[in-house]
Amino acid sequence: MRPFIAQISRDLDIAWQNRQDVVVMLGFFIIIIALFPLAIGPKSAMLQSLGIPMIWIAALLSSLNGFDRLFAQDVRDGWLDQISLSALGLGWYAVAKAVSHWLTASLPLLLITPILALMLNIATTKLPALMTALLVGTMALTLLGIIGAALAEGARRSSALIAILVLPLAVPVLIFGALAAATDDGIISPHLMLLGAMLALLLAMAPLVAATALKIGETESGI
Amino acid sequence: MTPDRNTQPSAPASGTAVPCLEIDALTVLRGQRLVIDRLTHRQNRGELCILTGANGAGKSTLLRSIAERLPAESGHIKCHLPRVYIGHADGLAGAISGRKNLQSWAAVNDIMVTGADIEQALAGFDAARFADMPVQLLSRGQRRRLALARLLLAPAPSLWLLDEPNTGLDQDNQTRLETAIAAHLLAGGAVMAATHIEMARSAATIHLAIGL
Hints:
The structure holds 2 protein chains of 2 kinds.
Chain A: H1 2-17, H2 20-40, H3 44-64, H4 67-70, H5 72-77, H6 79-85, H7 89-119, H8 127-152, H9 158-169, H10 171-182, H11 190-216
Helix pairs in contact in A: 1-7, 2-3, 2-7, 3-7, 3-8, 3-10, 7-8, 7-11, 8-9, 8-10, 8-11, 10-11
Chain B: E1 19-30, E2 33-44, E3 48-52, H1 59-66, E4 74-79, E5 83-86, H2 98-108, H3 115-124, H4 140-153, E6 159-163, H5 171-186, E7 190-194, E8 205-209
Parallel strand pairs in B: 3-7, 3-8, 5-6, 6-7
Antiparallel strand pairs in B: 1-2, 1-4
């Protein structure tokens, strides 16, 4: 457990030193959401029905940003070489990366979402369902991103490649996430349960896939 | 394996060889190119193995294979000691200080270290002066000294895999590195190093020529 915690706290330390990245990503999220009403027009009925899907798409796009640097920095620094010999192991390392990436990239989005929902005129009664769905959904998206980032590691233009790998896989998360958030039958809806099932599946798969991809990836150049 | 750096190493009894690294018919491909062809090597505790060979002969490839960073095409590598790898990249995050880098390295390896242990490791390469600065502000040689300080934090009998360890080091620190290696070998550890620079020789030095 200690190596796992140590990896997370190391990543949080580094993220704190680069905290402007989080501000940029939050700004991106806010601007996307602020642009929609300008394009759609101030008809409140339309905004109400489009508000929740808009928040989901904005969350999806802004959480994609940053995955290209997720492992690249550690590979370039040689930290991955140290990890593969360490007590932590690549699988737990991938989980630790997912946790710290979620804490630094998705949690700020979640925290600011209620204010944006207010801006989009989403009824406050819908907020608990929206937040719960976003909580589960962003975790699933982060795990998908971990897979994409590990597979694309070392490739040129990896950010575009990650988007192509991850976005199609994110479709089910988006569908059930938006349904679970817009539902009228309470917080725990069947859609949310399906979303949770996807999270559970990804939680089991993502560390394995990421660890295998990182292990076989030719990483440091030089013979 | 939870190494405890305070374990007293059982000193290798003179005459009896304790094998720590066994490589059998190792073949490694890099891309489509055959780099290491059926290499067999035995190394005992207390031995220093210097890899010799031209640039591109496969010295780093061998070290990376032993460090589990390159999958072998065929053959086996058996290592009976914890491994510490110092490669071309220093394994330090630029945004945080050298001290934090060392602490997190010890923690992910589940090595219990106190602040005094860290100080001692830093002092081993005279790195305490710049250990609190973000690593990205340091020079090449200073980073290398922080990376080498990891060796002094590692559990006592271990196998050091050193890839050009003296790149960027000044004369004083090369001497410190040689001293550290000598002390490590005496304590029952083993070292495999790829270097073009002459190191102080001892009786237990073996040379392994790499290259097809």
